[in-house]
């Protein structure tokens, strides 16, 4: 029987959204494990971290059957992924559905042995029962969440036809270096690094299940050789409020004010992953990055990108000067 290292070397893994936040970290993790990685991304979102080596600059819809030749596994992470943006431009989010349908059809034609489809906890909506279990009814509250439900339905159809090869992976909130500041943790880290007030939408009591990106990509990589299941939550199993996250930043930069703003439309009160399936597949993680440590690392990453400019009231992002 092949050892895990030998097995990894024979893997050729295509990652859509490979220049994105999670995709680039996953590409590095899989390469470190000896996999040949083929990242694909059309760069519609400007990356904040260097794109992974060998990036194929292509839209998912432009992938063709030969792009799947020799591919042993696909992680489908390419997506429009902003809840507020999806209310403003809902039709753009149909691309999540079209791209998924196209890619899964190619995988079926190519007989790709393993396909992991990136979904989101947003599909659960405002669940009355917590933690969120994979079997819970889906109740999307935004065009983004609806596009992921549709993607999951397409994946389900492929599962029925192809058995266990396709797995839906419901990611809960992932944070860390390289994520754009339109998500909660990087937004707070950037503001804190600039010495500005910390924006809090609504009461700040809404809770999310946060995971540091290194922990998430470790789990994603682990799924490559885990027994296939139809759906798995990837999360920490613990939720924290926005106010708790802001408090961690006020430990790093004491004295920063909280700036309360109107709540979001259709805001979800809490997401918290039931991790029974995840833990059964992957075992308990040897070490998880604590939230205090993960926020610190993310803050440091943002602080390193800032520069003091005499004419500006707050430090500016390096890229704003170029
Ligand atoms: N970051 C999170 O907290 C989180 C939580 C739940 C689910 N997810 C899911 O994880 C996946 C990755 O998220 P992320 O945070 O890395 O997002 P990201 O926006 O950083 O990365 C997505 C990448 O996909 C690319 N892309 C989008 N549509 C494309 C297409 N049709 N063809 C080619 N490239 C395309 C973008 O250019 C971008 O680089 C997404 O499917 C997202 O829905 C993320």
From TrEMBL:
InterPro entries: Epimerase_deHydtase (IPR001509), NAD(P)-bd_dom_sf (IPR036291), Sc_DH/Rdtase_CS (IPR020904). Residues 13-226 form the NAD-dependent epimerase/dehydratase domain. It comes from the Bacteria. Pfam families: Epimerase. Belongs to the NAD(P)-dependent epimerase/dehydratase family. PANTHER family: DTDP-D-GLUCOSE 4,6-DEHYDRATASE-RELATED (PTHR43000). This is NAD-dependent epimerase/dehydratase. It comes from Actinosynnema mirum (strain ATCC 29888 / DSM 43827 / JCM 3225 / NBRC 14064 / NCIMB 13271 / NRRL B-12336 / IMRU 3971 / 101).
